[in-house]
What does this fold into?
Amino acid sequence: MTPRALLVSLRDPHDPMAAHERRCFALRADLPEAAVDVHPMTEGRPDPGRVRTYDAVFFGGSGAYSVLDDVPWIRAGLDTVLEVLDLRRPAWASCFGFQGLSLALGGEVVRDDARQELGAVALALTPAGEADPLVSVLPRAFWGQEGHHDHVDRLPDGVTLLATGQQIPNQAFRVDGAPFYASQFHPELTSASTIERFVHYQSLYQAPGSDAEVILATLRAGEDTPEMAQLLARLVRGQYAT
It folds into this structure.
């Protein structure tokens, strides 16, 4: 039987990147797009009984929003990540989802445009990451697709750091005792889909005075880590535990 996943969308439902995100998660999870249902957080929190019916839950990015914005549906999104954690559903939260889970668990998220990361970023597994049954499929040094202004400055208690970077040290963790993973990088994206995101959100991520063509050339030269495609596919099939 084909696994099913729920994507909790943290984007404006009218944003074309909401549909793009669904396609990206489905592709990287090796699922038909129809096997990935979407619940927009703008419509309120998903019913816990419904959440229990899925093999995995995904939380992605948010485009024009920050996890620090004082917006009711964003605050509800923080409650939702904790509900999914309490339900012990296999889950992956990337970018905005990573920051939201960190904040909800008591970590610290800061806005720092000077440390913005965009495109393929060189990252590395920690010793715990090399031993983790899921993320250890990645090579010790790997490329992660990024696009963010905010970052997790202090991890919450009760998580294990799995990946780190030179500019932003906190890049991925697993919640201790739960099948809930989170990363600043996007395992659902490739260099090509990162470019599609940048083109759509260009006004948000292009620094004043910078040349869009130079940025695009850098993004086009970005590298992918082939093993990244295994992460979500293995998560939805329960291949994350020893």
